[in-house]
Specification:
By secondary structure, this protein is mainly α. The protein has 4 helices and no strands. The two termini are 35 Å apart.
C-alpha cells in the first residue's frame, strides 16, 4: 500500500526552497522595477537644440533600447510570476514534483532553477 503515498519534499526542505525563492523574487522584483522605470522615464536628454541628424540618430537608438528594455521587463515579469507560482506550490506541498513524471525534481536543479516544474528527464523528453 506504500505506493499510494505521494512522494514529496519534507516541510524542512520546502522551507529551505521557499527562502531561496523569496530571496530571488525580491531581487527579480527590484530588477523589474529598474527596467520598468528605464522604459517609462524616457526623459528628454536635452537634444532639442542639437542638429537634426544627431537627434534622429539618438531617437532611433532610444527606440531600440526602449524595445530591448520592454522585452527584458516582459521576461522579468514572467520570472517573477513563475517564482510566485513556485511559492504557491510550496504552500500546496506540491513543489518539486515533476509535472510529467510525478517524480521529485533533483534538489540541485531546484536550487539553480527554483521555479522548475520539470525534471531533467522530462525536459529531455521534450527535445
Amino acid at each position: 500500500m506504500a505506493e499510494d503515498v505521494k512522494v514529496r519534499y519534507s516541510d524542512a526542505d520546502l522551507a529551505m526552497f521557499k527562502e531561496i525563492i523569496v530571496e530571488k523574487m525580491e531581487k527579480a522584483q527590484k530588477d523589474l522595477e529598474l527596467l520598468q522605470s528605464a522604459y517609462k522615464n524616457d526623459g528628454n536628454n536635452g537634444t532639442d537644440d542639437t542638429s537634426p541628424t544627431f537627434k534622429a540618430f539618438e531617437e532611433g537608438s532610444e527606440t531600440m533600447s526602449k524595445e530591448a528594455n520592454t522585452q527584458l521587463a516582459i521576461r522579468q515579469e514572467k520570472f517573477v510570476r513563475d517564482l510566485k507560482n513556485a511559492i504557491l506550490r510550496i504552500e500546496n506541498k506540491t513543489y518539486g514534483i515533476c509535472r510529467v513524471t510525478g517524480k521529485l525534481i533533483n534538489p540541485e536543479r531546484l536550487k539553480l532553477v527554483p521555479h522548475a516544474t520539470l525534471s531533467i528527464e522530462a525536459k529531455n523528453m521534450q527535445k
